DNA sequence: TTGTAGGCGTTATCAC
DNA sequence: GTGATAACGCCTACAA
């Protein structure tokens, strides 16, 4: 008494079909595809021919289920609209693709809760490892990771607690660009911050430290808004800043979007940049070199971060390098006309 | 004689473990999670408690394998660095997430061969449907799709062959912005094109049609470069164009990046925009409203395209709406200072 | 409303 | 180098 045949997924061709067509057993097909050197050339050819003839596409689900390895890596980033993370993704992609791994992209929208939900959801795919943005995550998030024993690499920043991380010191970068403004003779240097994520707050900390060092920190020169940054917001914040503190003589914006909006507003208002007001951004996005005047900013090695983080994670997954590493890729000041 | 236990994936907690903890059978756990209304509240609570207590995360692989449905949708786009596609992705994401579907993102880098490889690779995940960018794909690509009987929706453009598509007429958009330049009194209107993908070529066709209509098409005013567009390229192309045809009085750039680079170069060279040379872009990216002078461009409903395309695909997957649709979401001219 | 039996497509393990 | 067998974790079909 046979039952109704079930619906088949994909084109319906299975490894057994290929095996039958090639006159071998299923396991030989599996080996011919995954460990070719373990199969004699003659059979290997037969198998490959059958694969092509039938249009066979292996089922990742079955493979994952049987082997307990998904050859998949989860990447969690705060935003897909930010070039910074796209460049990082591009770097990751090249490394993973070469190693035969695929990438699951999760966009947390800068929200720790959403990040946790994403992790939960994507854990269903049993990723072999995770690439994370930033060091701070919701407490249950870290628990989940541990519970599942998932190798993780933290990107964009540097930890000192033994976690594997690839990035640069956000704080030092913020301090460095602030010092540059000080060297230009500015003394009442303001800070425009949006989004207020972990990294922005560290840049702010660096800014404060540099100013304190020079004896000219002034809390009244900081303007912070938790909303996502945009050029419009940069323009608005510039208005607010100058209205509140007309004596302000420089602005460090937490990212280039803000800076470019502020710069455009300066143009409209006829404010002399950098003489009357110097402006600096962060990240060195494409428009920074093209706006008027060109924007002084901090170039960040985000593509390289993606590449190195992916390599480190693959090493952890393969068990090659059990020990965690801490990779500082640095940053570079791009000094242009706006300062 | 029992064998060695195999390595378990995930945290090692399976549906059976949950069932045992809750004192029910595995299938009841499955139903409590997937069709809650089919399980009595009492048992449902017990199950959910056990799920939480054990930190159970279902295995998508097992589910996919057993049900022949992956609840996964493949999205193929030409680039991750282009805001246009990111906005589309964002739209898709909201719809899919709400429906409990996950999205696999494939970046073809504007390359038909890579796109085919991506499809092959991602078919291993047995997606339930595909969202595609543009109408033209490699021939084996369409074969593969058919062979696997995959529901597909084509985004960004409009087909007339019964395929399900959501977008707007690239050609009409190109014609419309060209007509606007004609209305401004321009007669020697040039075209700057990069990337030269399907959509750029259609915008070019629209540009030609509009000029031919007005009796002033001039093939010597077209500058085309298959390399990816950038602001730098826009600046370089402006130089080349004016060197070759100093009589050129307007430029339609195939995208905003090019236009903004050209605009910036005009500023540097002291070329009066729009009096001496009008400039128009395409897509209405954020900087278009902020550059100097602000950029006339074509606003495209890309987020909405993502939303509607995802909805259409889900309908096809669920079998609600077997018939294909052709959804024209239109475009809008954004007339600003550069024309 | 709940449970039992069996199979989805692949790979690990152990024999030959 | 090749093959038989038994999992992997879940869901469909059917039965109670």
Automatic annotation (TrEMBL), chains A, B:
SMART domains registered for this protein in UniProt: HTH_LACI
* Gene Ontology molecular function, alphabetical: DNA-binding transcription factor activity; transcription cis-regulatory region binding
Q: Which CDD domains match?
A: HTH_LacI, PBP1_GntR
Return the InterPro entries for the record.
Answer: HTH_LacI, LacI/GalR-like_sensor, Lambda_DNA-bd_dom_sf, Peripla_BP_I
Q: Where is the HTH lacI-type domain?
A: 13-67
- Which UniProt keywords are given for this protein, alphabetically ordered? DNA-binding, Transcription, Transcription regulation
Tell me the PROSITE patterns matching this sequence: HTH_LACI_1 (PS00356), HTH_LACI_2 (PS50932)
Q: What is the name of this protein?
A: Transcriptional regulator
Q: What is the lineage of its organism?
A: Bacteria, Pseudomonadati, Pseudomonadota, Betaproteobacteria, Neisseriales
